Amino acid sequence: MWFYVFVSPWLVGFLVFLLGPMIASLYLSLTEWDTFTAPTWVGLQNYVTLLRDDPVFWKALWNTFYYAAISVPLGLALGLWLANLLNKQVRGQRAFRTLIYLPTLVPLVATAMIFKMVLAPSGPLNQLLGFVGISGPAWLLDSDWVKPALIVLSVWGAGGATVLLLAAMRGIPRELYEAAEVDGAGPIRQFWSITVPQLTPIIFFNLVMGLIGAFQIFSQVYILTKPVGGPNNSSQMMVPLLFNEAFSFYHMGYASAISWLLFAVILVFTLLAFRTTRKWVFYETEVG
Amino acid sequence: MAIGSTHVTRRGFLGFTAAAAGVITLTACGADSDTGSKGSGGPLVMTVWGGEPDRKAYQQRIDLLVKKYPDLSVKLQLIPSDGYAQKVQTMIAGGSGPDIMEVAENVNVYSSKNQLLPLDELATKAGLDLEKRFGSIGKLYSYQDKVYAIPDRSGAMIVYYDKAAFEKAGLGTPGPDWDWAKIQGAFQQLTVPGKTWGYAGAGWWAQWWSFVYQNGGTIIDPSSGKPTVTSDPVVEALQWAGDLTFKSKVVPTKEQYADMGADIGGDQAFAGGKVAVNTTGFWAISGLKDSKVDWDIAPLWRGKDQAVTAFGSGLSISRTSKNPEGAFKAIEFLTSAEAQKVIIDTGQDVPANIEVQKSDAFLKPSWMTKPVDMTAFAKSSEFVYRAPFIPEWNEMQKAFDDGLADFWLGKQDAKSALTAIQSQLETIVKPAG
Amino acid sequence: MSVLIQAQTTAAEVAPSPGRGTRVLRAFKATPFTYATLTVVSALLSVPLVFVVSIALSSDQTVNANTFTVLPHEFHWENFVRVFGTELPMGRFLLNSVLISLGAVVGQVLSSGLVGYAFARLRAPGKNVLFMVVIATMMIPAQITMIPQFLLFKELGWVNTFLPLIVPNFFSNAFNVFLVRQFVSRLSSDIDEAAMVDGLGFFAIYWRIMLPMLWPILIAIGIFTLTHAWGDFMGPLIYLNDESKMPLSLGVQYITSTSQALQAPPWNSVMVGSILLTVPMIAVYYFGQRYLYEMDISGGSAGVK
Question: Distance, in angstroms, between A62 CA and closest chain C CA?
Answer without folding.
Answer: 18
